[in-house]
Design goal:
The complex is a heterodimer of chains A (about 150) and B (about 240). By secondary structure, chain A is an all-alpha fold. Chain A contains seven helices and no strands. A seven-stranded mixed β-sheet of chain B has the order 3-2-1-4-6-5-7, sandwiched between helices. Classes of the chains: A mainly alpha (about 150), B alpha/beta (about 240).
């Protein structure tokens, strides 16, 4: 006869094991790994001690404990999704800036044969005006031909 | 004759091989200024056509849309040291002769951005959309979506920034950023040709229009209370 404790323990332990496995295999990048280790710990503890929620619900004045678990879980999922979209927007911005930078570099590599040479004395002011993004500002301006050949 | 202050012409193009060449040639011939075509991931020979007409081509590796392409051009122009930029569509809607009218308010110090407006071109649906956005934002412009514009140095810096990189369209969002930074925008009436080939990227289908209206409305509402800063004194 399988008790509900064995069921919850199995679910919690296998979820936690999967997450730990993925983190150890470097499939999750730094900050995400921290969130998921926390999640693994939570499911493991709740799986081992399913009564914890009954105690917590009693203290919080919730008469039906599973609802508290569902609401908390749902809230955390929403929060996680929100931070995911925030991060995706940040990445979208970076990807767009990178694509633009790539197009500019490519144009420098293949200048138009008919166009008069562009003013090369692009001022530092103009460069710094463009390099407003901290992540990309560190990228140095294109190397002179000689150095590029050496690389 | 207008002092051009070394302007650069920026032409975003997506599959416009039939029209981009003649436009590049025309702008170069009339204004003797450098022309940059931003190739927004075209699948046809747009880049070759532009290059053989004498343009510098910025080939985008991902399709960023009209605004992403224009921003690429603005960033490039700033890096090359240009202080005035003109944008025009690659489909032949805009008359390169009118570039002088666009530059005039910038030279006079009347505004930081000049928009070539031809509101008569708009369909009924588009007019309704524009008046809705005018009402929502308080913008006083007639032709909100015109891609025929001139930007001075201050406007170029603002629009080349990361802040403007997540915009998807070159109209309301861009105008709101300019207003928030205290930059003045004027409209200059110009003539416009009917599109010879291709169709508007926005007014294509009801689904796209709906998405555009919803996204732009949200953008306007998100900016409530950010408006009406005193104009910037100088660049």
């Amino acid at each position: 006869m399988i008790t509900y404790q064995i069921t919850s323990m199995t679910i919690g332990a296998s979820l936690a094991a999967t997450i730990l496995f993925l983190v150890r295999r470097d499939h999750l990048h730094g900050p995400y790994a921290i969130w998921w280790i926390g999640a693994a710990a939570t499911v493991a503890i709740l799986g081992l001690f399913p009564r914890l929620f009954d105690v917590l619900a009693g203290k919080m004045g919730v008469s039906y404990p599973p609802v508290l678990a569902i609401v908390l879980g749902f809230g955390l999922l929403l929060l996680k999704m929100l931070t995911m979209d925030l991060d995706r927007s940040r990445q979208e911005r970076l990807i767009r800036r990178l694509a633009q930078r790539l197009a500019m570099l490519e144009a420098q590599e293949n200048p138009s044969p008919l166009q008069p040479p562009l003013p090369s004395e692009a001022t530092e002011e103009a460069r710094s005006a463009d390099a407003t993004e901290p992540e990309l500002a560190a990228i140095p301006p294109p190397l002179p031909q000689r150095e590029r050949d050496r690389e | 004759m207008v002092d051009l202050d070394r302007p650069i012409a920026l032409i975003p193009a997506h599959n416009e091989e039939a029209t981009v060449g003649p436009i590049v040639a025309q702008v170069r011939e009339l204004w003797n200024c450098p022309v940059v075509v931003i190739d927004d991931c075209s699948s046809d020979a747009t880049a070759q056509a532009a290059r053989s007409a004498g343009a510098t081509v910025l080939p985008l590796p991902l399709q960023l849309g009209a605004w992403g392409a224009i921003q690429t051009g603005l960033r490039y122009a700033l890096r090359q040291g240009y202080r005035t930029a003109i944008t025009l569509d690659a489909d032949g809607q805009h008359e390169p002769q009118d570039i002088g009218f666009l530059l005039q308010p910038l030279v006079d110090g009347q505004a930081e951005v000049a928009i070539g407006a031809f509101p008569e071109r708009a369909s009924r649906a588009r007019r309704i959309a524009w008046s809705y956005f005018r009402w929502l934002t308080g913008l006083k412009l007639e032709d909100i979506t015109s891609g025929f514009r001139a930007y001075n140095h201050a406007a170029m810096i603002v629009l080349a920034s990361c802040e403007a990189s997540l915009l998807d369209y070159q109209d309301v969002g861009v105008l709101l950023i300019l207003r928030r930074k205290g930059l003045r925008t004027v409209e200059v009436p110009v003539a416009m040709q009917p599109r010879t080939l291709g169709a508007s990227r926005v007014f294509r289908s009801w689904w796209v229009v709906g998405k555009y209206m919803l996204q732009t409305s949200l953008l306007c509402l998100a900016r409530v209370g950010h408006n009406h800063r005193p104009p910037a004194t100088d660049d």
